[in-house]
From TrEMBL:
This is ABC transporter A family member 7-like. It comes from Populus alba x Populus x berolinensis. It is a multi-pass membrane protein. The keyword ATP-binding applies. InterPro entries: AAA+_ATPase, ABC2_TM, ABC_transporter-like_ATP-bd, ABC_transporter-like_CS, ABCA, P-loop_NTPase. Its main location: membrane. The keyword ATP-binding applies. Belongs to the ABC transporter superfamily. ABCA family. CPR flippase (TC 3.A.1.211) subfamily. GO terms for cellular component: membrane. It is found in: Membrane. The chain crosses the membrane at residues 38-56, 338-364, 384-412, 424-446, 453-474, 532-550.
Length: 940
């Protein structure tokens, strides 16, 4: 069957795009308050960071945190002046002072405290350690482990390291401390707050002396305590490692429990080769706060080097380690950038909160069936995707621009120090990836509340997992880089990594007075920004393609075959190719041979399918829908092989009880569900394969009103009119005519938001939408539901005028509406068409009797029955109660004149309170056909 050229009502790509864009901008304008709340989130966060930064700066700038600031009466005038100088500083202030000549102090060893020195224990099988009782008296020696290939050399060198000095002073003595070293040792804490120990091979009564360290104008004076050392031989380095490991336990003080002074492995050392490994006490090297402190290692290396030198060159040969001191430094001011410290986590939340916003907007259109409603009125997938994507991209880009601009205006170093072009490129890639991901994920949600919950779980979950898990992996240099890249495939972690890099560079730049991240830094081996941006670019393109494919399969009406991409894209309207549907013979078992009208309709369809042209807008060929069984229930046969032909200019009414299959039939025709078998042709196009083209000539008034709550009635009609290729004055006139026809034009109703309409007003607007643009086929599912009598009558006139040169399928439960509007009726029961014809034909075919009703006294009931039997021997009494009786009399047995004459005679014989004679109504026909059909299917 050949088909005509493309419909003049088919809007071009850019016209559809323009219509959707105008609708989105209007919708966005109505939601300005929600947009303000969205943008206020980064505003509020940046303000909070600024307030926090101000409080921290004020705390840092206090005199107690500045180098030697004191209020001193320097002029002897009774008032004090603020003076900042190193000589007035304490140890907490010293790190911020200028130190042109740092103090010198004797080199120290890290000595275990008396309660932590290594002793014998149940877990240690070696017995050469001292007994645990020495801890009670504080007399435990410190242990030094020795190993190597030459035992005698190792033991002799160990004895020489801690020989009793001939002169007791800080230069010749081996000093140590159990104090905790600091990150910046401008004075070793041992001389200010710790204990000093003099380590000797044997402690005597005169082994204690005073050590003086000059610091500012007053030197520190410290008295040393002698600690005896003992050198213990171990057969291998493995034994030493094992014993150190056994001693690595934690006591109540949260420190190592069985500590040693150190250990030496002399390996293959001899008179010509000095090769040694040193174990040192690194208890405080890496603290719990993440800082790496200095370790007291130089003295341990000096001791073993001197012992080896003296062993082969004599006691006079020495390498003197006289003192240790820090490098000179200028004065510094503590700088703490709160935005860079907290920004990685907080800004992750700021950026990723756009994800649930986009996701819920897409799911809302899906849940409210607005997407399919637009598609059924001619909006193609291409314009929808382009405008929707660019719409969300514009909103996201504006959001990010305001975020970065405001953060820069208030002076957050996170934004001002890092290169802006890198920032905008990073954010541009991410928001594109985020929007693509929202399109993909929306295909798997059908409820806005569920999508919102899942979206915000992703927001907060990503930030927390990034801060407490992913960041630790990034900072761990031993963690494989490949696994880091694998984790960054999750977009949330890619965002977190990029923000982490910005924060690190801004922290460094703020503390050192330099710039943050520049393009040259992207080539640094430790900078992960380049990897992140490459990942986001590739993932964006991949997710976008997958999202479009999934949308076509699951979200576009009845969906498409997963192999549809293998078919080439058609650039023009396809011509129809009709052939009889397979399985027609099998479907005939559902046709009752006593229904000649249904058989005749099927034969008519078969004939139309063989003709090259037709004036019939709708041809249903053996249409069948079966819903699969669930939860142990059998499958449901909703539509049983329906064959139907509707020409242009006809309004076809579908009648049937609830659950008869009417909605399933309409859903197949408008593309909401796919037929199980069979097909239908709309304007010559197959609904199975050419539904996108069917939509261009179709109008739909669904059973439930599918409207945007914030758009007005006029804006709805303008949008759908543009989709039907109406422009300019023609569009304006069509909208006004539609509004007037359904009584929505006067009184400002047209410019009132649809969410404020009553149920009847929404219904009238839905009818106007279905008819605008002169569609060739219109489906109306119970269009007058909820209307008052006056509005219903007006709506009937609108529909009656609208059926000129178009086919209309109308479902209704109102027999009056069906009789007034429909040229033909079909009664649908249990998924099958039971009868077809105009109202008069159906009443004549299924209602060939008069209904006679008479009310008398109960004593005269037998007289009434005898009178009726005389008029019609085959009359059937259908109602009898309290003197009122109702009879059905076949029309061929009685004439109306005889009935009137008989009633007049009866009135003269007994009292007649009321009587009536009526023809069969359409409602009677419907009830009769429906009951008989249900009884038949119940028996079968």
């Amino acid at each position: 069957m050949a088909d005509s050229d493309a419909s003049p009502h088919t809007a071009a790509f850019w016209i559809q795009a323009d219509a959707l864009l105008r609708k989105n901008l209007t919708y966005q304008k109505r939601n300005i308050s929600a947009n303000c709340r969205l943008i206020s989130f980064p505003f509020v966060l940046c303000i909070l960071l600024i307030i926090t930064q101000t409080l921290v700066d004020n705390q840092i700038s206090k005199d107690s945190n500045v180098c030697g600031c004191r209020c001193i009466n320097t002029n002897a005038d009774g008032t004090c002046e603020r003076v900042c100088d190193l000589q007035y500083s304490d140890l907490d202030q010293a790190p911020s002072c200028s130190v042109p000549s740092p103090p010198k102090w004797p080199p120290l060893l890290q000595v275990p405290g008396p309660q932590y020195r290594a002793v014998r224990s149940a877990s240690d099988p070696l017995s050469d350690l001292p007994d645990e009782s020495c801890r009670q008296t504080g007399s435990c020696p410190v242990s030094l482990f020795i190993t190597g290939t030459n035992r005698s050399l190792g033991q002799s060198l160990a004895e020489m390291m801690f020989a009793a000095p001939s002169i007791l002073n800080s230069t010749n003595s081996v000093l140590g401390s159990n104090s905790e070293p600091k990150q910046d040792n401008f004075l070793d804490p041992a001389f200010a707050e710790g204990s000093l120990y003099n380590i000797q091979s044997l402690c005597t009564s005169n082994s204690t002396f005073t050590v003086s360290v000059p610091y500012r104008s007053t030197p520190f004076q410290n008295v040393t305590t002698c600690v005896q050392s003992q050198s213990l031989w171990r057969n291998s380095s493995s034994e030493i490692n094992d014993q150190i490991y056994r001693g690595y336990e934690k006591g109540n003080a949260e420190r190592k429990y069985n500590e040693i002074l150190g250990a030496y492995d002399f390996l293959n050392s001899d008179a010509t080769n000095f090769n040694v490994n040193v174990w040192y006490n690194a208890t405080y090297k890496d603290s719990s706060d993440g800082e790496t402190y200095l370790v007291r290692l130089p003295r341990a290396v000096n001791l073993v080097s001197n012992a080896y030198l003296q062993s082969f060159r004599g006691s006079g040969a020495k390498m003197i380690l006289d003192f240790v001191k820090e490098m000179p430094k200028t004065s510094t001011k503590l700088k703490l950038d709160i935005a860079s410290l907290l920004g990685t986590l907080f800004f992750t939340w700021v950026v990723i909160q756009l994800f649930p916003v986009v996701l819920t907007a897409l799911v809302y259109e899906k849940q409210q069936k607005l997407r399919i409603m637009m598609k059924m009125h001619g909006l193609g997938d291409g314009p929808y995707w382009m405008i929707s994507y660019m719409y969300f991209l514009a909103i996201s880009a504006l959001y990010m621009f305001v975020f970065v601009a405001f953060g820069s205006i208030v002076g957050l170093k996170f934004f001002t120090l890092n290169d802006y072009f890198i920032q905008f490129l990073f954010y541009f890639l991410y928001i594109n990836l985020q929007i693509s991901l929202a399109f993909l994920v929306s295909a798997f949600f059908s409820n806005v509340k569920t999508a919102t919950v899942v979206g915000y779980i992703c927001v907060f979950g990503t930030g927390l997992l990034g801060g407490f898990l992913f960041q630790s992996f990034v900072e761990d240099t031993s963690f494989p880089k490949g696994w880091i890249i694998f984790m960054e495939l999750y977009p949330g972690f890619a965002l977190y990594r990029g923000l982490y890099e910005f924060a690190e560079y801004s922290l460094q730049g703020n503390s050192m007075g330099t710039d943050g991240m520049k393009w040259g830094n992207l080539s640094d081996s430790e900078n992960g920004m380049s990897d992140v941006m490459i990942i986001m670019l590739l993932e964006w393109l991949a997710v976008l393609c997958i999202a479009y494919y999934v949308d076509q399969i699951f979200s576009s009406g009845s969906g498409k075959n997963p192999k549809y991409l293998l078919q080439k894209f058609r650039k023009k309207r396809p011509s129809s190719f009709r052939k009889p549907s397979l399985g027609r013979q099998a479907s005939k078992v559902f046709v009752d041979m006593d229904k000649p009208d249904v058989i005749q309709e099927r034969e008519k369809v078969e004939q139309l399918l063989l003709e090259p042209t037709t004036t019939h807008s709708i041809v249903c060929d053996n249409l069948r829908k079966v819903y699969p069984g669930r939860d142990g229930n059998p499958e449901k046969l909703a539509v049983r092989g329906l064959s139907l032909a509707i020409p242009r200019g006809e309004c076809f009414g579908m009648l049937g009880p609830n659950g008869a299959g009417k909605t399933s039939f309409i859903s197949m025709m408008i593309g909401l569900t796919a037929p199980s078998t069979g097909t239908a042709y709309v304007e010559g196009l197959d609904i199975r394969t050419q539904m996108d083209w069917v939509y261009t000539s179709m109008g739909v008034c669904p059973q439930h009103d599918l409207l945007w709550e914030t758009l007005t009635g006029r804006e709805h009609l303008l949008f759908y009119g543009r989709l039907k290729n109406l422009k300019g004055a023609a569009l304006k006139k069509a909208v006004e005519d539609s509004l007037k026809s359904v009584n929505l034009f006067n009184g400002g109703v047209a410019d009132k938001q649809a969410g404020k309409y009553s149920g009847g007003m929404k219904r009238r607007l839905s009818v106007a939408i279905s008819l605008i643009g002169d569609p060739k086929v219109v489906y109306m599912d119970e269009p007058s539901t909820g209307l008052d009598p006056a509005s219903r009558s007006n709506l009937w006139n609108v529909v009656k005028r609208a059926k000129q040169d178009r086919a209309i399928i109308l479902t209704t439960h109102s027999m009056e509406e069906a009789e007034y509007l429909c040229d033909r009726l079909g009664i649908f029961v249990s998924g099958g068409l039971q009868c077809v014809g105009n109202p008069k034909e159906l009443k004549a075919r299924y209602g060939g009797s008069y209904v006679f009703t008479m009310t008398t006294s109960t004593n005269d009931e037998h007289e009434v029955e005898r009178m009726v039997r005389r008029l019609s021997p085959n009359a059937e009494r259908t109602y009898h109660m309290a003197g009122t009786q109702k009879f059905e009399m076949p029309k061929h047995e009685v004439s109306m004149a005889d009935v009137f004459h008989a009633v007049e005679v009866a009135k003269s014989r007994f009292p007649v309170y009321a009587w009536g004679l009526s023809d069969t109504t359409l409602e009677d026909v419907f009830i009769k056909v429906a009951n008989s059909a249900q009884e038949f299917h119940t028996l079968t």
